[in-house]
Amino acid sequence: MKELDNKTGKSVMFFALRDRKRTGGHGFFVDRQVHYFHAAEANDDKTIATHGIDLTGLILPLYSVTHVALQIALYMGFQQIYLLGCDHSRIFDLNQGIHFYKNEEENAL
Question: Distance between CA atoms of 30 and 73, rounded to whole angstroms?
Fold first, then answer.
């Protein structure tokens, strides 16, 4: 989190509500807008599909950063969204931790 805080300037930050303990109370993102969203479980998709994307309620499940970023952009009213360098092969690796970092670093502050 420290590196993220240091390298993102004054960017507005969005985090999952479940990550609040990792992001809040440690002196990170001071003097910045930080927003939290609550992601639904996979079986809540139908409710969201009928009511649309609303960041004040549940959003679609957290399958990737790209999925979340798209929902945030749509909620904010963006009409044109460009995706560059997106890899969505996750469905082929559901039971594997496939990150650009080692898994033991995943929960590190």
Answer: 23
Question: According to DSSP H, which parts of the chain are helical?
Answer: 2-7, 20-23, 45-51, 65-75
Beta bridge partner(s), residue 65: none
Q: How far is the CA of 47 from the CAs of 50, 57, 65, 100, in angstroms?
A: 5, 11, 21, 33
- Note the pLDDT tens digit of each residue in 1-29: 889 899 999 999 998 888 888 887 788 88
User: How far is Cα 90 from Cα 103, in angstroms, rounded to an integer?
Assistant: 16
Note the pTM of the prediction, 2 decimals: 0.65
The pair of structure tokens assigned to 25 is 């109370």
Distance CA 1, CA 4 (A): 5
